[in-house]
Specification:
Immunoglobulin-like; 4% helix; mainly beta; Jelly Rolls; eight-stranded antiparallel sheet; 588 residues; disordered N terminus; globular; 43 strands; 47% strand
């Protein structure tokens, strides 16, 4: 049964887009979605593209791509064709603002010269500059690259810096800085890296993306050496809060969520022994033979990749029947992907609340050894391990043997039942599954890294990979209290490869032929003698077509979505001179 349909999903996004464009706190905004460098804030800071930058898929819509070239050219009389592509910007004076913020996304591929270059540049190295750049500190004889942030730079001084790690190459990274009360705060991927007292001071001379200017050896020089993409460059006339910076640096797709705690009733299904308790979710109390689960209330998109993090703790461990190698208590906690039901829970004891569910994959954090010494022998390696298991399209069993076991690690950190808070991160991308567990969010190496895990086909996920996700737990004759403290989920943004473009054109605007009702999962079309409906999936394939002549304009045609699997679609509706194409997000 269709539980929820967000019809006109793209229209809602368009309204959100308008709120950005006409947000009075935005001074400038280059989205690049139109295939140019126009300032879509409406304030007229349009850029000029030089040396033919191109456009690629960005974190949101299109991004601009630059090709670095050469070392430098003389500023006076130099041939711009000898440096890389870039965007020239008009002068932007921030000196009179008590506070402002700059955010941007950068996908760094490399430089044409090892010195590095600017991503965003205002001013001149020797006369004062504002920048977000990636450059060496030449004056230190240090030829390592550093992210650098400043609003009052001078000869590489007065800058906040952070070593550039290779992990930031070829991935989208969010860079930002906030200026407030003569203090500059620098952020990488929404995390504050440092702050420094400084007063805005840069020369109102040169302004650009992917180009910078300096003086050396009696000569004025400039360069454009950056190769990579830039997207969503925004200058705000206010100091963004920590929460706003994190929101700007999130490139999560539809159906993502974040629960810092559970003080309010979130949009989740609690099953079995799971219940809210203050700011936490207690999956199981410290009692025998309990099983609890918390599931998303709707299916979420998983096939394009995702990252999820949660934190939990265990307390009040009791085991009167068997001396454990490590600590008292049982049985553990699991992150589960399934395409069966969000109103169910699996077996107690070593089943950890997931065993017995069909079309399921589980990442279990196990605190009890169900081995040959136990009534239930699941071939557990010890009482302190992590494992990935699945039953494919059939029922999963928590047995560490074929065909259920995909990967395991029995050498993880000790799992203490003393209130220690554990942080778990799970990432799935391009059929590779990685898992981290630590006592802080400063994760080290993954404890599980397994390739060739195709969860879409393995579990028969809907559409392009939609399913339920949840966290389960259980106890047996030994038991402990399992508490979920926080949970966030980020689905990677969908790239629409369809050639179908959204548009809404009408030569007869006073007659509305498309009526949408969210209470009833249908689109109602009032037709004027003739209509045609075509539905395309996000790969551009035609999955439905209907055309019909009706007797008069008072008749309605109903398009029922219940036959379509969960996913994102392009709907094209034509009636006489009117044409409308829009995206629909369908969730079952």
């Amino acid at each position: 049964m269709v539980r929820y349909i967000a019809v006109f999903f793209s229209f809602l996004l368009f309204l959100n887009y308008l709120s950005f464009c006409y947000d009075p706190s935005l001074l400038a905004y280059w989205s690049f979605d139109e295939g140019n460098a126009r300032d879509v804030s409406g304030n007229g800071y349009d850029g000029i593209m030089v040396n033919n930058p191109t456009f690629v898929q960005g974190v949101s819509g299109k991004a601009i791509h630059f090709q670095g070239k050469g070392y430098y050219i003389p500023t006076n009389g130099g041939d711009e064709r000898k440096i890389g592509s870039h965007v020239l910007l008009p002068p932007i004076d921030l000196h009179q603002l008590d506070e402002f913020s700059i955010t941007m996304w950068v996908k760094h591929e490399g430089f044409s010269n090892y010195y590095g270059d600017a991503y965003l540049w205002f001013g001149h190295y020797q006369k004062g500059y504002l920048c977000i750049q990636n450059h060496v500190f030449e004056i230190r004889n240090d030829f390592n690259l550093y992210y650098q942030f400043t609003v009052a730079g001078l000869n590489f001084s007065n800058t906040i810096e952070m070593p550039f790690d290779e992990k930031y190459k070829n991935v989208w990274v969010c860079l930002g800085m906030v200026y407030r009360k003569n203090w500059l705060y620098a952020y990488v991927n929404g995390i504050l890296i440092d702050s420094m007292m400084m007063k805005v001071n840069y020369e109102l001379s040169y302004f650009a993306l992917a180009r910078s200017w300096w003086y050396y050896d009696g000569e004025e020089r400039n360069s454009a050496r950056f190769t990579g993409a830039i997207d969503e460059v925004k200058i705000w006339k206010k100091a963004l809060t920590e929460e706003e910076i994190r929101a700007e640096c999130s490139n999560c797709g539809p159906m993502s969520f974040e629960y810092a705690d559970f003080h309010s009733s979130p949009n989740l299904n609690l099953i079995g022994s799971a219940r809210f308790d203050g700011n936490t979710i207690v999956l199981t109390p410290s009692l025998s033979n309990q099983a609890g689960a918390v599931w998303t209330s709707t299916k979420v998109p998983l096939g394009n990749g995702f990252e999820t993090e949660f934190k939990f703790r265990m307390r009040d461990g009791i085991n009167t029947m068997h001396k454990e190698e490590h600590y008292q208590g049982a049985d553990g906690i699991a992150f589960v992907i399934q395409n069966y039901s969000n109103k169910t829970v699996g077996l107690t004891g070593g089943g950890i609340g997931y065993s017995g569910l069909p079309r399921c994959l589980a990442i279990e954090i196990d605190t009890y050894a169900n081995d040959s010494l136990q009534i239930e022998n699941y071939n557990d390696p010890n009482d302190n391990h992590i494992a990935v298991l699945s039953g494919g399209l059939g029922e999963i069993k928590s047995e560490h043997r074929s065909p259920y076991l995909i990967a395991e690690n029995k050498g993880i950190m000790p799992l203490r039942v003393d209130g220690t808070i554990y942080f778990v991160k799970i990432q799935y991308s391009e059929n590779e599954l990685k898992v981290w567990i630590d006592t802080s969010e400063r994760y080290g190496e993954p404890v599980i890294d397994v390739k060739d895990v195709d969860i879409v086909n393995m579990l028969g996920l809907d559409g392009e990979g939609w399913g339920y996700i949840g966290i389960t737990s259980a106890t047996g004759n030994a038991y402990e209290r399992h508490e979920l403290l926080a949970w966030k989920f980020c689905t990677f943004s969908y790239t629409f490869v369809s050639s179908i473009e959204e548009k809404n054109v009408s030569d007869n605007k006073d007659k509305e032929f498309l009526i949408v009702t969210e209470q009833n999962p249908k689109i109602l079309i009032r037709s004027y003698n003739y209509y045609k409906i075509e539905i395309f999936n996000s790969n551009g394939m035609l999955v439905y077509k209907s055309e019909q002549n009706l007797n008069n304009g008072n008749e309605y045609c109903e398009l029922n979505f219940s036959l379509l699997p969960t996913g994102i679609y392009f709907i094209k509706v034509s009636a006489k001179e009117q044409i409308s194409i829009f995206k629909v997000l369908q969730i079952k």
